[in-house]
Specification:
Largest sheet of chain B: 9 strands, mixed
Oligomer: heterodimer
Shape of chain A: globular
Strand content of chain A: 25-35%
Number of strands of chain B: 13
CATH topology of the largest domain in chain A: Immunoglobulin-like
Order of helices and strands of chain B: HEEEEHHHHHHHHHEHHHEEEEEEEEH
CATH class of the domain at 367-399 and 480-589 in chain B: Mainly Beta
Helix content of chain A: 10-25%
Structural class of chain B: alpha+beta
Largest interface: A-B, 81 and 80 residues
Chain lengths: 902, 608
């Protein structure tokens, strides 16, 4: 972590300016409020035109408010294109899903009223679901309130910190250049930043705005009690050895914040803007300290300040009112997570670097020898011929197809790395073509931008252009990517983009993209487009029949549609293990469900205990991959003695056993946006004890997991939320909910519990990889609640194609009530739809929390009696526990059936 | 409508599938209940292989995948029988060469046992042949080692005796020499006295002589003595001289550092940490200071070390930043084209490896009968031990300390056994000859004594050093049968691409490229029951641990180093084939294995 290499707010003029403003700074008022094209529109002009001010600065801004179904309000503010600004400001394309447009509600009428003793009137439009949007004219303010009681939900510019630097001609003697260290940003268009305050009402905490290595509930960065903090920075950067508790920007940026409070619930705010952003979270009472004209400070309001270097205001207010509602609303704008292939949800083995074919073969065979399942083996940059992506170092990898074939024969897959920096080598076909076609990002002078990365001198495809994205996608065809096979998938690293000799290790802000867009305007989305193009390439390769798998390091709003992400180059330290949880939780609630941290820690050598604990936690990450830096000691699971091998194998087995449950959750995310791994408050929104708990997390709605984050821990305090009990995942022991339990901890496992009232589907046979588990039978674990009832879902499809989109899937709901377990179909079927069927049966039904005694059960469909006996909850720890088990109930997973306890 | 659920067990033709022949009795009992082997519970015959796990240890499901802890036995007639993890049963992948693990009809597995068995048997036969020859060689080696050790011990005790005698002689000569010197001193003083008296007489005769002149002489002598014994420099001349000396010695240090490029970078990366460095080296620190003036935040964190990026070209900056991840020395690299993350691939062995080369991981060694799902584990094993055949890399061995031996040849060669007697005689003669005091001392006699003294003490010190090196040698662990005795003082070389690896047991191991030598480690010890040699504390790796080398020993007919690899950064692994590892018990084991394999061959080969 080289702090001095990155700009802080004070070294970033737009941030410094915005942060220095006092409440009430904004003098804009709203004029000409009317309805046009279903939107509420208005002009924003200074209240008292200052003749000394530059006339460019007093041009009216255009405001438009649009309402959408399901409690979404969109606010756009931009310069008036009819007044001839020097340049069109950048609006981020291809992030909002096309379907979103169809959800627009056409506003019909606007009413005017004076509210709360204001001197000037406000314009009010009714949205939906009992919400109203209010535009106060003077001073200009926009907010959403509940129609019934007038309670505010979210507001913008309530503190008058709104500022919009309009593009203008350079004044004589004015210096627009900005210098940082040895770099000069020419800033040919001068200042163009935007900033404003956003307030969340009835809020106890705010969350979101990844990516930062910091707590899940966002700590205030300004105001009483806050020592000198930077704002949360959103600027995609390749930060060497990032530290575990910092608001500084790392690889990804999602300008989406969620507030949650006990009294009302949840709301969200998303600013679609890809330029550098800085966000302050104010501590309660900040405004009192800064100005006396501010709103009366309200205990349950959280104020935030949003600052961006460029772009326009294109902001979304999400009304909630529940946590899952906000996530659904947000993902209806930016898209829900893609449905991954089944293999991608299993365990991934990676290292920088698996060196050659022999190494690959050895590692692969070692997993088999030790009966440890894994699904994917990864190759880092060294597999290429001199860091020329899409090529192979033929000395090390003379037979790549054969190598992939050998893995594929065991149902395993391979991932190779493809980064955006293209080696400037005339004999390299990608470079030659990109140069000839003019496909590279240009420097400020208009030449192909030349930066430095792994291959040395490199250029970067201008992936903003759809044409260039399509060209890039074609690279991944089997013909073009020589040595690739259909079982090969891709990893996009360094796509922030990382430029070793660029300012802040990235591309200069004055570099130029397609359509004259400056890099500063789209920086945070560069990696997003790259990820998108790569994923599109894999879809094209598979003729639209094979779901892509692409892992990306850079992140932007919408990334969830294109693949998985990981939290970058973490370190083999307990603190990094600890912070991986809030990082993943935050990514999850901002749409990015499929994420994980490098198990073991990228930099440094983990002690075996840390490595084991990391595997035990990582087994519950949505994306479960071990990875290591090439200077570290080898750390494949078998290198730390038999006992540790066993512990790591157990941890990996846990994941494989729970794959049906995970896959069901991935489908839930795919349909609703609700993440696979969730903060406790998302499942227990009215329980304050959960709001800032980021040591524990929920996997779906049924399992709670808490990591062990310290060395030689003997005990752990685990808060189990809710009124119902929780059953230890391994032993079946019940614990009361709504309290903190001090539990003894062994090296065997980390605390994990199933919530009473839920049913989890498992597969208990451990194969080489998930591929061989497809036809394996299921175990259903029923954790009964206090009313002796439970329910759960299972989703199954072919695990790889897009046929599920046409109905080819099994979706069951299992309901246990009145001593009967029933399997109900949730899949909507209609004629002509694709079908999916499975031969798999249910081999075992486990009942937790059932009164002892029953000896048999009846399959009502066949009228067959089956045995109930005492059996182990988990087979491999068989002797430890005895739980009520329905033995071989004789039902298929995809059928309707009822089993009655006799 | 009710659907008949097809269970895997329905397709089970043989209820006893997956059970090893020696185990059949256990299951084919007359009682209806069978115990789980771990004693945890009992299951009925109907529950045997019914695709539901009743015994946690898998006793009831030897033929299905129902129990995670289960083992499946395949007979593999024609090859070797095999136990599989039960998770391999009906997983769509053919594991047993007889195909018996895939019986649910989803895949068809051809029976390949005959071919695979033949290959395995041939390999095993070859391996046995090597072992047979190797065992003989090893026996000879052990015999030689016994003789060699006995010889060393005999020599040592002889040398110790000689040392004792010689010490006495030297002592005598020394005493005599001192007596002579005493006598000589006495003579000298006598002479001086006489001279003085003569001079005094002369002085008396020449009273006119200047007194000052007389006194000046002793003064001058004192001055000279003073200068010699003075500890502190007394004038500026001295200061300069000392300063120069110090400077030149620190230059040497710097030059040494420069030999190790890694150290150089480290220095420039941590300005100020080496306080005593000369100006040139301190420069980066000075520049870093300048930089921190520019950037107010630099250096505010304890661990932060600001690099000097000011004044770097774009390319240099790129390399510098890249080097954080790669740990490469950027300064050294500026002329190279690639900013590669590392140059491992250049260090890598090329395509010269055999396919089943075992690489580096110790766990690949299946010799200890560990469970293995690979049906060709015999093959692997064979290959591990058969390195010498497919090695075209040059490999050689030689003695590293032959000079020591030759140096001592004059005193240790058997052709010259009576040297000590001769010396004794000579000394006696000398001592006798000068026994009587003569005045003046007989100069030729005195010279003789001195010469004898010098020669004898030189011999003594040679003997002492030989004693010390022999005792050092004998302290080493040469293995349970001293089979590694001949390794002492020898080096084995292997070539791997551009590198020559030199393994000198009991001493050190190194990697040579042209004239550059990198020490991979100093001799540490044997490990893993004398199957591994450990060399540790080699040269430091930049951004990594000290280098180390693990040499795995395999039975082979010659001592040869092969397959040097670097599985983890700066942790090397090599293979050394040697007859010392050709153990008779292992040979018997292999022969037994071959017998079993031959027995397993189908009598009638028609079915194939």
């Amino acid at each position: 972590w080289k702090k001095e290499e990155f700009r802080n707010c004070n070294q970033t003029p737009f941030c410094k300016r915005a942060r220095a403003r006092k409440p009430g700074f904004c003098s804009l008022i709203a004029l000409d409020v009317s309805i046009s094209d279903g939107d509420l529109t208005a002009k924003l002009v200074p209240k008292t035109p200052d003749n000394e001010q530059d006339p460019d600065q007093i041009k009216p801004l255009i405001l438009a408010l649009s309402a959408y179904q399901d409690g979404i309000l969109r606010l756009r503010i931009d310069e008036d294109p009819s007044l001839g600004p020097p340049k069109k400001r950048f609006e981020v394309p291809d992030v909002i899903v096309p379907e979103f447009a169809s959800k627009k509600l056409w506003l019909q009428r606007v009413s005017t009223a004076k509210i709360d003793g204001d001197a000037a009137p406000s314009s009010i439009v009714y949205l939906s679901d009992g919400y109203e949007a209010v535009v106060r004219h003077d001073p200009f303010e926009v907010y959403v309130r509940e129609k019934s009681n007038g309670n505010r939900v979210i507001s913008l510019n309530s503190h008058g910190l709104f500022d919009f630097e309009q593009l203008r001609a350079k004044r004589e003697g004015e210096d627009w250049e900005e210098r940082f260290r040895t770099h000069t940003d020419t800033r040919p268009y001068g200042p163009q930043s935007i900033s404003f305050d956003v307030s969340f009402y009835s809020a106890d905490f705010v969350y979101g705005i990844p990516e930062h290595a910091s707590s899940h509930a966002l700590k205030p960065t300004r105001g009483p009690g806050v020592e000198d903090s930077e704002p949360y920075r959103l600027f995609n950067l390749d930060v060497f050895e990032y530290i575990h508790d910092s608001p500084f920007g790392i690889y990804g940026s999602i300008p989406f914040m969620i507030s949650h409070g006990k009294s009302r619930g949840t709301s969200g705010f998303f600013w679609l803007n890809a330029a550098e952003m800085q966000i302050d979270v104010m501590a309660t009472g900040w405004a009192d300290a800064e100005s006396e004209i501010a709103l009366p400070s309200e205990k349950s309001r959280i104020d935030t300040l949003w600052m961006s270097e460029a772009g326009i205001v294109d902001a979304f207010f999400f009304m909630g009112p529940g946590p899952k509602d906000v996530v659904r609303q947000y993902t209806s704008v930016t898209g829900t997570p893609a449905m991954p292939q089944l293999f991608a949800t299993a365990y991934h083995q990676c290292r920088w670097n698996y060196r050659d074919e022999e190494d690959v073969e050895h590692v692969d065979s070692k997993f088999d020898e030790l009966n440890i399942p894994y699904d994917v083996l990864w190759l880092d940059i060294e597999h290429t011929d001199g860091k020329r992506y899409f090529t192979w170092d033929r000395t090390l990898f003379p037979h790549p197809e054969e190598m992939q074939g050998k893995l594929a024969a065991k149902g395993r897959h391979m991932v190779t790395i493809v980064d955006p920096h293209i080696k400037r080598d005339d004999s390299y076909h990608v470079h030659k073509e990109a140069t000839q076609k003019g496909y590279y990002v240009k420097d400020a002078g208009g030449s192909d931008y030349d930066g430095w990365c792994w291959p040395g001198s490199s250029s970067y495809p201008d992936i903003l252009s759809p044409e260039i994205r399509s060209w890039w996608a074609d690279m991944f065809s089997i013909e073009n990517y020589v040595g690739s096979t259909p079982s090969l998938y891709i990893w996009n690293d360094m796509n922030e983009p990382s430029v070793f000799n660029g300012p802040e290790v990235t591309m200069p802000r004055d570099a130029l993209h397609y359509g004259g867009v400056e890099h500063r305007e789209l920086h945070n989305a560069y990696g997003y487009y790259f990820h998108m193009a790569t994923a599109d390439g894999l879809v094209k390769r598979g003729d639209g029949k094979d779901r892509p798998f692409v892992l990306s390091r850079a992140i932007f709003a919408g990334t969830q549609r294109h693949g998985a992400v990981w939290t970058g180059d973490n370190s083999a330290e307990w603190d990094h293990l600890r912070v991986s949880v809030p990082m993943i939780l935050t990514l999850g609630i901002t749409g990015i469900s499929f994420s994980g941290a490098d198990v073991g820690g990228f930099f440094g050598n983990p002690e075996p205990e840390l490595l084991v604990r990391w595997y035990q936690l990582g087994a519950y990450y949505p994306f479960f991959r071990a990875h290591a830096h090439h200077d570290t000691k080898r750390r494949e699971p078998w290198l730390f003695g038999e006992r540790n091998t066993e512990l790591i194998r157990d941890a990996i087995h846990v994941r494989y056993m729970l794959l049906p449950y995970f896959y069901t959750l991935f489908r839930e995310a795919n349909t609703s946006g609700v993440p696979v791994v969730r903060p406790l408050w998302m499942e227990f929104p009215s329980e304050e004890a959960t709001f800032s708990n980021d040591e524990a997390f929920m996997v779906g709605n049924s399992i709670i997991v808490q990591g062990i984050y310290t060395e030689r821990a003997k005990h752990a305090s685990v808060y189990l939320p809710g009124k119902e009990s929780w059953y230890d995942l391994r032993t079946g022991t019940a614990y009361k909910g709504g309290r903190t339990h001090k539990l003894g901890v062994s090296e065997d496992s980390i605390p994990a519990f199933q919530r009473a009232g839920t049913i989890i589907s498992r597969k208990d046979r451990f194969r080489r990889s998930s591929t061989q588990m497809v036809n394996d039978p299921y175990t259903l674990v029923i954790a009964l609640n206090s009313s002796q009832a439970a329910e759960g879902e299972l989703y199954v499809d072919d695990g790889k194609s897009f046929e599920f989109e046409h109905g080819a899937y099994i979706h069951r709901r299992f309901v246990f009530a009145d001593g009967k377990l029933t399997s109900v179909n949730l899949a909507t079927t209609s004629p002509g739809k694709s079908r999916f069927s499975s031969e798999s049966v249910v081999e075992r039904i486990v009942l937790l929390g059932h009164a002892p005694g029953p000896k048999s059960a009846l399959n009502e469909a066949t009228n067959q009696k089956v045995d109930i006996e005492l059996g182990p909850l988990w087979l491999q720890w068989g002797r430890g526990s005895s739980v009520l088990t329905i033995r071989k109930p004789g039902v298929r997973i995809g059928d309707d059936w009822t089993i009655k306890i006799l | 409508s009710p659907v008949a659920v097809r269970s895997v067990s329905a397709s089970l033709k043989d209820p006893f599938i997956g059970i090893a022949p020696e185990d059949e009795k256990y299951y084919k009992t007359s009682s209806d209940l069978i115990k789980c082997k771990d004693g945890s519970k009992k299951f009925s015959k109907a529950q045997l292989n019914d695709d539901f796990c009743d015994c946690p240890d898998g006793t009831d499901e030897p033929g299905t995948s129902a129990c995670p802890a289960g083992k499946f036995y395949c007979r593999n007639a024609g090859h070797a029988p095999l136990f599989l993890y039960s998770s391999r049963v009906n997983d769509g992948i053919c594991d047993c060469c007889d195909g018996s693990d895939e019986y649910d009809g989803k895949v068809k597995c051809p029976n390949t046992c005959w071919e695979a068995g033949k290959v395995a048997r041939d390999k095993l036969k070859k391996k046995i042949a090597t072992y047979q020859e190797g065992v003989t060689l090893r026996k000879q080696e052990v015999e030689r080692a016994k003789l060699g050790l006995a010889k060393d011990e005999a020599e040592l005790s002889k040398l110790k005796d000689e040392e004792k005698i010689l010490k006495g002689l030297v002592q005598q000569l020394k005493e005599r020499k001192e007596e002579i010197e005493k006598a000589e001193e006495k003579e000298r003083l006598q002479k001086e006295k006489e001279e003085k008296e003569r001079k005094e007489a002369e002085e008396k005769a020449n009273k006119e002589e200047n007194k000052a002149e007389q006194e000046a002489n002793p003064d001058n002598t004192a001055a000279v003595e003073n200068t010699d014994s003075e500890e502190k420099p007394t004038d500026s001349m001295h200061d300069d001289e000392i300063g120069l000396l110090e400077d030149s010695s620190s230059y040497q240090d710097v030059a040494k550092d420069n030999d190790e490029p890694a150290a150089e970078v480290e220095n420039s990366d941590t300005p100020g940490s080496e306080g005593s460095l000369v100006n040139e080296v301190e420069q980066p620190a000075a520049e870093a200071k300048e930089e921190s003036a520019v950037s107010p935040d630099s250096g505010s964190k304890g661990n932060d070390v600001s690099e000097n990026t000011e004044g770097l070209s774009k390319e240099e900056l790129g390399r510098l930043v890249a080097s954080r991840w790669t740990g490469e020395n950027t300064a050294k690299q500026t002329e190279e084209v690639d900013a590669t993350k590392d140059n491992d691939h250049e260090e890598m062995p090329g395509g010269t490896h055999g396919e089943e080369s075992d690489g580096y991981a110790s766990e690949t060694d299946n010799d200890n009968g560990r469970y293995d799902d690979d049906n060709d584990d015999v093959e692997d094993e064979v290959d591990e031990d058969f390195r010498e055949e497919d090695h075209d890399e040059s490999s050689s061995s030689y003695n590293f300390d032959s000079e020591i031996e030759s140096d001592l040849s004059d005193i240790t060669t058997p052709s010259n056994p009576s040297w000590l007697e001769k010396i004794q005689k000579t000394v006696q003669n000398v001592l006798r000859a000068v026994n009587l005091f003569q005045t003046p001392v007989n100069q030729s006699e005195a010279a003789h004594v001195r010469k004898e003294y010098d020669e004898s003490s030189a011999k003594l010190s040679k003997i002492e050093s030989r004693i010390s090196s022999l005792s050092q040698k004998l302290k080493h662990d040469f293995g349970p049968e001293k089979e590694f005795y001949s390794f002492y003082g020898r080096c084995f070389e292997g070539k791997e691409n551009k590198y020559v690896y030199k393994v000198c047991p009991y001493k050190q191991a190194s990697q040579e490229e042209g004239h550059t030598t990198t020490r991979l480690g100093r001799w540490n010890k044997f490990e893993d029951a004398y199957r591994v040699m450990i060399f540790s504390n080699g040269d430091k790796c930049w951004n990594g641990p000290d280098r180390s080398l693990k040499v795995k020993l395999r039975c082979g007919l010659q001592n040869e180093v092969a397959d040097v690899d670097e599985p983890s950064r700066c942790e090397y692994v090599a293979l050394l084939s040697t007859p010392a590892l050709c153990l008779e018990e292992k040979l018997k084991e292999l022969q037994h294995k071959l017998e079993l394999m031959n027995k397993e061959q189908p009598q009638n080969h028609d079915e194939l």
